[in-house]
């Protein structure tokens, strides 16, 4: 009896699979592509612990344990790479994180819908410009002799001769961070704006009745209402503190600012693709991801303990 | 007493409003000025641009920069390549996403949980640059133009968005009624799900198109043939590695002196930015609400 039920259940499951065969066909292309371009590379991570030789394949290459990791940590460049990576992303976080919140609060406090829409359209626009063009614009606008900045500074009498921002190590980080703010400020405010649209109007009405000014309502009603969103995004961003976007850093690099602009991701690219040191650069990349992962988990734990907000 | 309180409240509101509007106005100027400058520099006289005479308004009028862009052969070829890549990417991404999203939305799919885990894992873990590169190489896809859109076309985030959309917008009773009448999944997908999911399909298509239009990195590491390069790669060569462009312009301008060529190269770069960014910039304001919707859709995970 027991067996017949089980057999029956098995039969039902099998019938469901047969009836829905199309669904499996629908899933097939996505499953195959994920396998090829995500699962196969994940399997390939093990070359970080091997001496990968392409003619031997992954499995037959010699196992060397943590050798590549040790090599990276003993590298003369290691502290510089670490410092550049962390300072760029911390600076980006400090400059880039609060401003979208302020923008969203300000937009939310405007009554004029037309004005609001214009500000939104303008501030979102740079997000759609490609990184190549953004860096191209930086190069043009801050060009030593013909850029608009040098023109303006000269006409104000603050600068004579050429301006050396693009080639200067110290300026790189400011250029990188503030061009990033320019690009993404508006776009990043969208999340907060949508959180603000969920604020209960009854709270504002109660505030008005109690004589709260606009500024007070903004600080004591709107802002506290979006704190969970803020914490969530802060956690997510902290998890990527060791990741400086490869593309912009790479495009902004030149031989003069390399001391400030070489970050872990550009180093991985150069060692891996350009110099074909596959195992070593995979190890560097893995080291980076592991630290990111640990950071994400610990910040999440801290946030949960302190404010009760967390990702999971 | 009450009246005076109301007056102070109004006064502080006025101050607050002024600060808010002034800040936002200043922000708009800061964001728009670089874009405006590129526009006026591209249509001004090349010499005026390089002598710093162009600040707020165009000085002189010359479309010489645009003419140089027009006659530069690599630009049109790569423009066409980018259009093809973008079209392929959008078609592939949208169809894969809607197929997988629909399948995962069906509750009677045996093994749904397992398949979902298989999908979601890829959102959190990846092989990283080098293992992916080696995999692509060993699959023999390096140098194959298809890699430009194959690599990114399965976005699990998109699939989850479509799945959630179908689950919350297409009522289960509709599915049951259709299947009682002898409908199969393919027919149901084509006749009911796709027409009803148009808003979410539009959003995914838009995001995919912008991403592909602006991408260059995949092309840089996987493509080997110059003739297959997308627009952004050519832009990178012309806008960022400046010497290449200088040489090209020096070769094409005959009998001119070096200064004029340099000025022309400068003006060509401004024109190039306009030519490459104009399609998105003109279309975007009209589609803005779709983009915003897409972003908020993505933030609600199902």
Question: How would you describe this structure to a colleague?
Answer:
- The complex is a heterodimer of chains A (312) and B (302).
- Chain A contains 17 helices and 2 strands.
- Chain A is mainly α.
- Chain A folds into 2 domains: 62 residues, no CATH class; 241 residues, MetI-like (MetI-like fold, Orthogonal Bundle), CATH 1.10.3720.
- Chain A is globular and about 80 Å long.
- The mean pLDDT of chain A is 88.
- Chain B is mainly α and 302 residues long.
- Chain B has one domain: MetI-like fold (Orthogonal Bundle).
- In chain B, helix 4 packs across helix 13.
- Chain B is flat, with a radius of gyration of 26 Å.
- Chain B starts with a helix and ends with a helix.
- The mean pLDDT of chain B is 86.
- Chains A and B meet through helix 1, helix 2, helix 6, helix 7 and helix 8 of A and helix 1, helix 4, helix 5, helix 6 and helix 10 of B.
Write the layout of secondary structure elements.
The complex is a heterodimer of chains A (312) and B (302).
Chain A: H1 2-19, H2 21-44, E1 50-51, H3 57-60, E2 62-63, H4 67-73, H5 78-96, H6 98-109, H7 113-124, H8 131-141, H9 148-155, H10 169-196, H11 201-209, H12 214-225, H13 227-238, H14 246-252, H15 258-261, H16 264-274, H17 278-307
Antiparallel strand pairs in A: 1-2
Helix pairs in contact in A: 4-17, 5-10, 6-10, 7-10, 8-14, 13-17, 16-17
Chain B: H1 2-43, H2 46-50, H3 64-71, H4 73-105, H5 112-124, H6 129-138, H7 147-150, H8 156-169, H9 172-180, H10 185-196, H11 198-213, H12 217-222, H13 231-240, H14 242-252, H15 258-299
Helix pairs in contact in B: 1-15, 3-15, 4-8, 4-11, 4-13, 11-15, 13-14, 13-15, 14-15
Q: Which segments of chain B are poorly predicted (pLDDT under 50) over 5 or more consecutive residues? A: none
CATH architecture title of the largest domain in chain A: Orthogonal Bundle
Counting DSSP E segments of at least 2 residues, the number of strands of chain B comes to: 0
The CATH H-level homologous superfamily of chain B: MetI-like
Largest interface: A-B, 87 and 95 residues
User: Can you list the strand order of the major beta sheet of chain A?
Assistant: 1-2
CATH architecture of chain B: Orthogonal Bundle
- Write down the CATH topology of the largest domain in chain A: MetI-like fold
Helix content of chain A: over 70%
- Runs of chain A in which pLDDT lies below 50 for 5 or more consecutive residues are none
Q: How does the overall form of chain A come out from the CA principal axes? A: globular
**Rg of chain B (C-alpha, Å):** 26 Å
Question: Which range best describes the helical content of chain B: under 10%, 10-25%, 25-40%, 40-55%, 55-70% or over 70%?
Answer: over 70%
Strand content of chain A: under 5%
What CATH first level of the largest domain in chain A would be assigned? Mainly Alpha
């Amino acid at each position: 009896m027991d067996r017949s039920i089980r057999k029956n259940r098995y039969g039902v499951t099998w019938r469901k699979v047969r009836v829905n065969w199309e669904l499996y066909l629908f899933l097939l292309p996505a499953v195959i592509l994920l396998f090829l371009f995500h699962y196969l590379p994940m399997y390939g991570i093990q070359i970080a612990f091997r001496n990968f030789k392409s003619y031997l394949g992954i499995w037959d290459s010699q196992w060397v344990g943590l050798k590549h990791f040790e090599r990276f940590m003993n590298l003369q460049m290691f502290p510089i790479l670490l410092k550049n990576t962390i300072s760029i992303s911390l600076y980006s976080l400090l400059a880039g994180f609060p401003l979208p919140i302020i923008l969203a609060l300000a937009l939310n406090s405007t009554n004029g819908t037309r004005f609001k829409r214009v500000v939104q359209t303008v501030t979102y626009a740079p997000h759609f410009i490609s990184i190549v063009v953004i860096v191209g614009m930086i190069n043009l606008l801050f060009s030593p002799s013909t850029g608009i900045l040098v023109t303006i500074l000269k006409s104000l009498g603050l600068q004579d001769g050429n301006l050396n921002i693009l080639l200067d190590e110290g300026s790189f980080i400011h250029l990188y961070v503030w061009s990033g703010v320019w690009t993404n400020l508006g776009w990043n405010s969208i999340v907060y704006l949508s959180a603000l649209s969920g604020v209960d109007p009854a709270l504002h009405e109660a505030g008005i009745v109690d004589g709260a000014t606009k500024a007070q309502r903004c600080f004591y009603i709107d802002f506290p209402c979006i704190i969970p969103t803020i914490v969530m995004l802060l956690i997510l961003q902290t998890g990527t503190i060791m990741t400086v976007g490869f593309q912009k850093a790479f495009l902004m690099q030149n031989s003069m600012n390399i001391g400030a602009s070489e970050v872990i991701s550009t180093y991985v690219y150069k060692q891996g693709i350009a110099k074909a040191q596959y195992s070593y650069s995979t190890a560097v990349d893995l080291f980076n991801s592991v630290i990111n992962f640990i950071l994400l988990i610990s910040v999440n734990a801290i946030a949960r303990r302190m404010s009760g907000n967390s990702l999971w | 007493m009450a009246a005076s309180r109301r007056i102070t409240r109004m006064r502080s509101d006025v101050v607050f409003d002024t600060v808010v509007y002034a800040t936002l106005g200043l922000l708009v100027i800061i964001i728009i000025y670089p874009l405006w400058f590129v526009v006026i520099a591209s249509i001004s006289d090349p010499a005026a641009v390089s002598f710093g005479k162009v600040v707020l308004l165009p000085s002189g009028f010359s479309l010489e920069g645009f003419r140089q862009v027009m006659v530069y052969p690599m630009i049109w070829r790569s423009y066409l390549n980018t259009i093809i890549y973008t079209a392929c990417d959008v078609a592939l991404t949208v169809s894969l996403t809607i197929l997988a999203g629909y399948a995962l939305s069906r509750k009677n799919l045996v093994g749904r949980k397992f398949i979902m885990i298989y999908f979601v894992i890829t959102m959190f873990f990846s092989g990283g640059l080098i293992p992916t590169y080696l995999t692509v190489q060993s699959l023999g896809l390096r140098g194959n133009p298809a890699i430009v859109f194959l690599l990114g076309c399965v976005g699990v985030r998109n699939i989850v968005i479509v799945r959630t959309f179908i689950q919350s917008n297409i009522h289960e009773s509709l599915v049951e009624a259709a299947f009682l009448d002898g409908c199969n999944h393919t027919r149901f997908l084509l006749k009911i799900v796709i027409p009803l999911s148009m808003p979410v399909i539009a959003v995914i298509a838009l995001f995919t198109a912008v991403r592909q239009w602006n991408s260059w990195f995949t092309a840089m590491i996987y493509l080997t043939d110059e003739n297959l390069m997308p627009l952004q790669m050519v832009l990178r060569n012309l806008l960022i590695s400046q010497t290449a462009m200088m040489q090209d312009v020096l070769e094409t301008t005959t009998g001119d002196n070096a200064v004029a060529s340099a000025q022309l190269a400068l003006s060509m770069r401004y024109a190039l930015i306009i030519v490459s960014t104009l399609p998105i910039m003109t279309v975007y304001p009209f589609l803005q609400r779709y983009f915003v919707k897409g972003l908020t859709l993505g933030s609600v995970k199902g």
